[in-house]
Design goal:
Elements (H helix, E strand, L loop, with lengths): L1 E5 L28 H9 L8 E6 L3 H7 L4 E5 L4 H12 L7 E6 L3 E2 L2 H14 L10 E7 L9 E4 L4 E3 L2 E10 L4 H10 L4 E10 H11 L2 H5 L6 H9 L6 H11 L3 E6 L3 E2 L4 H7 L5 E5 L4 E4 L3 E7 L2 E6 L2 E4 L6 E5 L3 H16 L3
Parallel strand pairs: 1-2, 1-4, 2-3, 6-11
Antiparallel strand pairs: 4-10, 5-12, 6-10, 7-9, 7-10, 8-9, 9-11, 13-18, 14-17, 15-16, 15-18
Helix pairs in contact: 3-9, 6-9
């Protein structure tokens, strides 16, 4: 098995911390290690892993090299979401057709790294065949903790079974991020329904076949691989599509997708409330956009640009957000923990390449 880390995306829900020149994967949000570095360290615990690759836009190649010099880098001319990134990885990385590729984001939090490594090993065996599917596309699902509107949902066919140590199901469909009432209904229905973690395992030939069946990505990119200018031109004509939309949704309708349940303390740190929870600061957070007038209560914290970079200001008061970048308003968060977060990011940026 080899691993492909996807380090794209702008992390816009974590502004003003995450910016175009330093997106979320390259920030030390949890401790002194960046999310990318933590992801690489987790993968090194997987038995039998034969290589780690990072797919990243050309603008951020230097960040990957500085933070994880031991990995192999695959540079995309431009960000076109996960379908294009995965297609490029299947073409560029030479591996036997039956070797398993694990695909995962660079910017997620995993609480139980040991169990995560075990889960990847078990899911890799699942990718060699399960439920009568010879070469399934395997997706990892996260047990629901609440009725969430910020995640997609995986809808399994029932009943499932224990396969290779994982509670697993043939997947019926991917469900897009639901409105609140639908999220509540899905949460109450339970019974195998899971959050979509955006993590996949499949044999190389299985994903190559699926990309060929449902997209034109392979035939578009393969002839351009040897010439950077041609690859950039090919990328310029691509649609910005996720692997879920392009491949996994039609493949699930065709009975080619197996879902394995994962319980490893997962969070995608997809917004400020999730980040505050992850660092133990509590409270809720939201991005306040430029031009917005906001009321800051006594229990609120405001993060925004100042003379010395990002600074923290306590309420109460009224402020008009007139800086070019967005501010965060965090209600009820622990001031010391938020300040420590800002200090980590500032220290990392002072040593940036």
């Amino acid at each position: 098995m080899y691993a492909v880390i996807l380090a794209g995306g702008g992390g816009t829900r974590l502004r003003p911390l995450s910016r175009a020149d330093r997106p979320k994967p390259f920030l030390p949000l949890m401790d002194d290690r960046t999310l990318l570095q933590r992801t690489v360290e987790r993968l090194r615990r997987v038995d039998g892993l034969s290589g780690i690759f990072v797919v990243v836009s050309t603008a951020h190649v230097d960040l990957v090299i500085a933070q994880a010099p031991e990995v192999d880098v695959i540079a995309e001319p431009a960000g076109r979401n996960t379908a294009a990134a995965i297609a490029l990885a299947t073409l560029v990385i030479e591996r036997p057709a039956d070797e398993v590729m694990a695909v995962l984001p660079a910017d997620h939090m995993i609480g139980n790294s040991a169990r995560f490594a075990e889960t990847l090993g078990e899911a890799a065996r699942l990718a060699r065949g399960a439920f009568g599917v010879a070469e399934p596309l395997v997706t990892l699902g996260v047990q629901m903790e609440r009725p969430a509107t910020e995640y997609g949902y995986l809808m399994p066919k029932r009943p499932g079974a224990q396969v290779e140590g994982l509670q697993s199901y043939v997947l019926d469909e991917f469900r897009e991020k639901p409105p609140a009432a639908e999220a509540q209904r899905l949460y109450e229905a339970g019974s195998g329904i899971a959050w979509n973690a955006g993590m996949f395992l499949w044999q190389r030939r299985a994903i190559r076949a699926a990309l060929g069946d449902y997209t034109d990505l392979v035939e578009t990119l393969e002839p351009a691989l040897d010439d950077p200018d041609e690859l950039a031109e090919a990328y310029a004509g691509l649609r910005t599509r996720s692997i879920d939309y392009e491949v996994m949704e039609p493949a699930s309708r065709a009975g080619r997708v197996v879902m394995a349940s994962m319980d490893v303390g997962w969070s995608d740190i997809g917004g400020w409330t999730a980040l505050l929870a992850a660092i133990g600061a509590g409270g809720t957070g939201r991005v306040a956009e430029a031009g917005e007038t906001i009321q800051i209560a006594a229990e609120d914290l405001l993060v925004g640009p100042g003379p010395r970079g990002l600074e923290l200001v306590a309420g109460p008061g009224t402020i008009r957000v007139d800086a070019p970048s967005a501010h965060l308003v965090g209600a009820g968060a622990d001031r010391d923990r938020v300040q420590a977060l800002l200090d980590r990011v500032a220290a990392a940026e002072s040593h940036a390449p």
